[in-house]
Every structure is written in structure tokens, then in C-alpha cells.
User: Fold this.
Amino acid sequence: MDVLPRCNLAARLISYICLNGKRPIKQMYDFVPQREIVLALLHGTSSQLPELASMSSDQTKTAILTAAEMLWAERSFGEVTMRDIVAAAGVNLAAVNYHFGSKDELLADLFVSRTTVLNRERFAELKAAELEGGGRASVEAILRALVSPPLRWCLSPDQQRSAAARFMTRASVETVPPIKKIVDREFRHLQRFATALRLALPHRDEVDIYWGLHFALAMIRQTVTDSERLKKLSGGLCDLNDVDDIIRRIVSTAHDALVGGTGVPTPLPARASGARKP
Assistant:
């Protein structure tokens, strides 16, 4: 940056703080996210500086996340633009760039924050089951801790209208790169459940346990993302409003798959000689 623009930038920044800040200058300087102000000036958006001065950096970030979640709860990830988020949050683009860098990073941050809360609920239920079982939870209790929180979040009547529930449902449906990267990378929380299942089923083949866990997760996702088709397929016989019954059915099916049977797949019949390959 040349000397003159740099001086102009400093002068504009000092003038803004002196003319608009009713607080002492030192207090004003500490309160306002300084980098956001500088970015706003650099990007020529100084007309929006009062918005930045009226909230702290944490408040700005929360406002952006809340606005983005509300928008993504109603519209697809690709449809919502940065301008939409900026307008809904009442901040400027410089603030979004400062806190998140890009729309993909904002989406990833929001998804991580929501899944963190969700997994915290899962762990709390699992820990309670382990304490009740003297350090070893039952298979049913482990599966219930895995299944219940996401289904209650997304399907309970009192939750369906919340932006968080609708955002998480959309995240299950739309496999956009930022979310897929996180899902593919972050699986440590699932290791906690795999460990609990190995402890509950010491004689079960470890491969069967991982497949059982995988199928339980698949049932959760399918129920959340494609429940309307089940309703039509069953002619309305399957009650999708009874979340307790849905949880019971998924837990029961996953439990039977893990506990019942030998766990050894039935071999495929040998191909007849000269049979045509599919």
C-alpha cells in the first residue's frame, strides 16, 4: 500500500472513532473489532461502520451464524448468497470475511457447532447408560444414545420448526463439499460408540460391530431425509409423528442385527458354468 492511501486510511479510522465514539477513545478502540473496521475501510464500506461499532466481535460472529442458519433452514446451500447473509445479519461483507473467510467456511463452522451440541447429548446419554450398567452399557442403551438425539432434533414436533433442526435436516440431504469433508474426516465420536459396543459384545467379531454401527447410522439418515416416501409407500400406516416409536424400531432392528444370528454372511451361490455375466 502506498504512503498516501495508508495515511488516508489512518486518518479516516481516527476520525471515525473520535467523531462517532461517545465512549473514551481507548475504550472505543478496545470494544470495536479493529480489523473489521480496517477491512471495511479498505473495501470502501465505511458507511456500514456504525454496525460494527454497535456490537462486539463475538456478537458479530453470532449474528452472522444465526442469520446464515435461518436462511439455510429455508433455502438450499447453493441458493443462499453472501449478500443474503450480510443483509440478514445486519453486518458488512468485511465482517463475514474476517470471521469466516468464505461461505464454505461459514457453512462448515455452523455445521461443526451444531454437531458438537448433538454429539454432546449423545455422549451424555451414553455415559448415563454406562454408569447405570456399572461401566458397561447394554447394546440397546448404546444404540438408543446414538439414535435418539438426532431423531429428536429433526423429527420431534416441537423441534421441526426450529432453524437448527431444519438446518441439520438439510445438511443430511445436501451433500455439499464443506459438510462432506467434515463428515469424512471427523469420526472420533463414533469410535466412542464402537468401543462401548465391543465392551458390550466381547465375543462379537469386530467387523460385525462396525457394520452394525454403520447400518444404524444409515437408518437414522434415511429416516430423516426420506420419511415422506415411507409415508406414501405405507399409505399412511407408518406414523412419522411418533418419534418414540421410530427410535424404538431403529434401535430394535440395529440391536437384532448385532446380537442375533451368527454374524457370518451366507455365501453367494456358485455361478453356473457358462453363465452370462450381468
